[in-house]
Amino acid sequence: MVTNMTSHPLVQVMWTEFVSCEALCSSSQASRNRMLTALQYAPEERPIVAQLFGSKPHQFRESAMLLRDLGFDGIDINMGCPEKNVNKQGSGAALILDPPNAMVGFYDAIVRACQEAGLPVSVKTRIGFHYIDYHDWINRILDTEPEALTIHGRTRDEMSAVPAHWDVIGDIVHLVKDKRQSTCVVIGNVKKQTIGHELVVVITIDIYVAVPRAT
């Protein structure tokens, strides 16, 4: 789908496709240029958030500073991508596998990096890797006070092959509301506007419409 901000006047925030922190920090100019090309945006697309994936805190820090200089309005950390080549790098949904290490050694460092760059941070993730398991590490994420938490209501192994687990999403929404500092964005089976309105009423989610950027 090719679109832009002007064709969707109700869009409030734009996100980029995810880009690799490792490539952004690479000594290879060709690798860096590929990522910088992917991050190009038009002024009318602002406010715009850059979505990053990676596994090394220092690379997120360097990337955050670069994104600040490029004029981005925020950073979104991808902890939900199910692709094998991304997970093999310890990135995307693989960060779910070892919550204490991911949250203490990784995510806290990312928050500090974003704070140093003066950018707000959000997180996109799933409800588990092999199976549904989210209480401990979702709370760890929320303890870092992200601007927003985006939940894909399926595990990594489920990909998008099963219906979203709305009961689990509802529980996570309550966790977010209890913390009272983050917006909750939900991904999963909202194919009609009427369904979205029903979900707002039933589990009090905060819904945003995600629209791909032009490439």
UniProtKB/TrEMBL annotation:
The keyword tRNA processing applies. Keywords: Flavoprotein, FMN, Oxidoreductase, tRNA processing. Residues 13-174 form the DUS-like FMN-binding domain. GO terms for molecular function: flavin adenine dinucleotide binding; tRNA dihydrouridine synthase activity. InterPro entries: Aldolase_TIM (IPR013785), DUS-like_FMN-bd (IPR035587), tRNA_hU_synthase_CS (IPR018517). Pfam families: Dus (PF01207). It comes from the Eukaryota. PROSITE patterns: UPF0034. Its cofactor is FMN. This is DUS-like FMN-binding domain-containing protein. It comes from Aphanomyces astaci. The lineage of its organism: Eukaryota, Sar, Stramenopiles, Oomycota, Saprolegniomycetes.
